[in-house]
Please model this.
Amino acid sequence: MKFCPRCGALLLPKKEGSKEVLKCSKCGYEEVIKVKEGYTMTVSKPVAKDSKVKTTSIVSEGGRRFRSKEEYEQEKEEYYEIFLDLMREEEGSGEEGGE
Model:
């Protein structure tokens, strides 16, 4: 593995005409490959389906998880009850036995 002396990005092997070079994808710096050992011109290879990383369904879906209408309504009722309790406390009538 070799890095660009200009910007520090990874140099990738490319074939340009009859020569093989290491080329920076950011700034375009090129360097001729002197020793072929360790560098292959295959940049990508097919990945077996069973070797892929498995994630949870929420991450894999890539979208938000929507609540059902029942869950939404229940949450709304809970927030409303909390709101009423806070309003009673603010008015001073939230004390038990004070009515």
